[in-house]
Amino acid sequence: MTNTTPVDTLHGDALAKAADQAVRAIPPAWPLTATVAVNPFLGQSNESFDKTAALLARIGGVRLALPRKHFADKIAKGDMTDEDILAALQTNAADPSIDLAAIKAALSKEASPIRALPTVADLAAEATGKDWPGLISDRIGTFAAGFFDQGQALWAASRRNGLYAAWRAFATHDLTPEILGLKGFGIHVSDTPETPHAAIERASVSLGLGAEPGTYFHQLLLTLGGWAQYARHIQFKAEIDGGVDTTALELLAIRLVFEEALYQQHKTCIEAEWRKVRTAHVAPVVANRDIQIDNLLQSAAEHAAQRKLAAALTAPSTATGADQRPILQAAFCIDVRSEVFRRSLESMDPSIRTIGFAGFFGLGASHHGFASDVAEHRLPVLLKPSVFTCSAVDDNQRADQKARFGARAIRAWGRFKLAAVSSFAFVEAMGPVYAGKLLRDGLRFTKGAKLDKAKPRFVQNLDLETKSAMAERVLRAMSLTEGFGRFVLICGHGANVVNNPYASALHCGACGGHAGDVNARLLADLINDRAVREALTARGITIPDDTIFLAGLHDTTTDAVTLFEDDLDCNIASKDLAQLRKWLADAGRLTRAERAQHLPRATPQNLHARSRDWSETRPEFGLAGCRAFIAAPRSRTAGKSLEGQTFLHDYVWQKDEDFKILELILTAPVVVASWISLQYFGSAVAPSLFGAGNKLLHNVVGGIGVVEGNGGNLRAGLPWQSVHDGEKLVHEPLRLTVALEAPKEAITDILQRHPQVSALFDNGWLALITIDDKGQLAWRHRNGGTWEKMDGGERDAPSRRLAS
Q1: Residue 508 has what DSSP assignment?
Q2: How far is residue 210 CA from its own chain's centroid?
Q3: Could you give the CA distance from residue 633 to residue 639 in angstroms, rounded to a whole number?
Q4: Burial code of 581-607, b = ≥16 C-beta within 10 A, e = fewer?
Q5: In DSSP terms, which residues pair with 738 in a beta bridge?
Q6: pLDDT in tens, 440-453
Q7: Which helix (H) or strand (E) holds 388?
Q8: C-alpha distances in angstroms, 81 versus 77, 94, 97, 104, 721?
Q9: Tell me, what's the pLDDT at 3?
Q10: Counting CB atoms within 10 angstroms of each CB, which of 67, 75, 119, 433 has the fewest?
Q11: Environment class of residue 155 by beta-carbon count within 10 Å: exposed (0-12), middle (13-18) or buried (19+)?
């Protein structure tokens, strides 16, 4: 018989709170159709980095640092110095006995191996020699793949009454656990309470947890990998929309039911060990000496990177022509890949300027592509759409209908190929027909997805006041309120690769894992509107009559730029258009030459072919290498190589009277950049927990994610090929350095009003440094709102807000 001991209300409330905290400790994972970089430590942002390292060592068995040899090699090469280690000691709290000598001595040997606390399934596996954790992963994965399916499965699981109820119906008829030795599991499941909360309470009593499970619930969700993260994503989205969701909580209940069943079957042989594990889970999480040394070495490597950044900022600039009116101003996403292209483009002619701004260009759009009913949220996932757009064409309904019929035929054909009654006969009869396609794909003649030719437009009838306010807000946020050039290119970015489940991860993070073409085209069209320009003049922004805004899209895989000149109501002179195309093409060639040096087997000439190669696992490296975020005038970085490792946001604080733009930068682009940086960090240092594994073993499941092999846990995060070139890491895991040219008093004031952002800096997830009026790194932010001179001088008093 199962344990039916009642749970008192106070006990139940404590367990409910613990379960909710465990769920919120899990990062969300977006589906493959719109892969979004997520900070894997999102649930720990209010904890210090070293405490989180200790937590994940306890429950995940991972170390949040590279092997010590990595740091020893950096010292041997001169990339990291004693001064960097001393700076790390000064900026990090640690055991007083850990000094420079102790750290250097620790470099001679690797830290002690880490092993996670065992779950009940782990203990039962040790006692019986059976892979119970593997069984749990397989059965939950099999069920979850059907339940979460987004159209890939021919027979999707029922979603009536939620995940937990659907699983109970599935598990009571699933004979696999019993066949493999978990006797009476179907009956055990049928006897569980009908609600997930009650199931969690009963299992907790059965397992002897009491009212305080400590870190145990968090560990159980970690063992479910991407399934828990995808369930958390469903909750995350629901809460942004003002709703509630319990999917992740229900997944925890399912995992606990397995633990409860195994415990009841093997209690006699695992009870003594399990009692020790329960005690360990409720003990305080404390960073041991090894973790503290790892943290100091990590910090020292980041100080070394900041020295390199400081040297780059003070290096002589090759930029010229700052005083003349530009012929071309090109606004790119702050994405680190744009830094290389911007630098290359500016080198083409002194009359070219570039601007860095978030790639959705301030227009948070929910967009419907041509002949599509799918709403694509082309904006950061932390925001809600402010406008609704589509690519429909009023006078071409026939084309819309034809496209829809074609799409339906393709879907029907695909389902027929996979159906149980036709799949084998299909292969026998139609196999030879696909020889041509296989040959074309093998010879790299595959074509990627095509861009919508139809011009996007706002669905709502926006009045002039609304449109001019939108345009003003974006232009002021870009610090583009005067000195307009003859042409202003609004250039979004995206990638065009084939046979790559992670294709959307190469798109624009600010556009929700989509390309930035729609946002760029909308903004260019908005500002070209004569009525909007007249209204902008009344708002203090005068755009010359001869200035033309033009939309474009930068393909980051091939560094080709598509111009949407057909969107314009006016004509650009052919010689001007030819000149723009030549500048962009020449800049693309320079950029490819620089990028090809870092891609395996790449040359500047074969990058186009690689993007069409269905077997290429590294068509590009995305944002690998990202390590800094700079918000400053372009004059601070123009003509200086930042090696494609820096997010560049144009910002002139003297134009920001109330520091609202600075506040927006700190609370939106900086947060998005931190998610990207920490996703790459987690995928590099803890790939077993936060990486997606090996692309060569990936199978797409449910249309939402991948598994490695033929089942088990969904893998979230980045594939190993995104951070490693086969011989070495191409992404050195460094926490992001945020450098702002703005008064430190204004920064402090903003952080005091946004504690969730301040926590990222205070707890060591990001570093914050100011840039002075000479372009030098000047002040380092310290925990508690204090600042320290970069030369190691005394801290000043807590900063006060600037007088308005």
Answers
A1: B
A2: 37
A3: 13
A4: eebbeebbebbbbbbbebbeebebebb
A5: 629, 768
A6: 555 555 666 678 78
A7: strand 387-390
A8: 9, 19, 20, 11, 30
A9: 45
A10: 433
A11: exposed
